[in-house]
């Protein structure tokens, strides 16, 4: 990594994005639970949870993994110098 200061900022943004996506997942599941109606909805509730997982948690995990990888590369480069 050329510019470690920029990479650290990117890591912080990715960590924050993963936290925001996880919080949005929890909030959307709570809202879906109260607005879900068995009579009007043909899909079971776990289908809505699965859709929200793909919508929120999958990108959050990707952002978290990317931040961890970048952070490890920064630490490896700083220990070599």
Walk me through what this model shows.
The chain has 81 residues and is mainly α. 84% of the residues lie in helices and 0% in strands. The chain has 2 helices and no strands. It has helices at 4-35, 45-80. It is rod-shaped, with a radius of gyration of 18 Å. The two termini are 12 Å apart.
Kindly list the characteristics that best describe this protein.
single chain; 81 residues; 0% strand; 2 helices; rod-shaped; mainly alpha
Q: What are the SSEs and their pairings?
A:
Layout: H1 4-35, H2 45-80
Please outline what is shown here.
The protein has 81 residues and is mainly α.
- Which runs of at least 5 residues are low in confidence (pLDDT < 50)? none
Q: Which strand-content bin applies to the residues?
A: under 5%
| Rg, nearest Å | 18 Å
| Overall shape | rod-shaped
Q: Kindly state the percentage of residues in helix.
A: over 70%
Summing up helix and strand content along with how strands pair, one would put the structural category as mainly alpha
Give the overall average pLDDT.
90
Distance between the termini: 12 Å
Oligomer: single chain
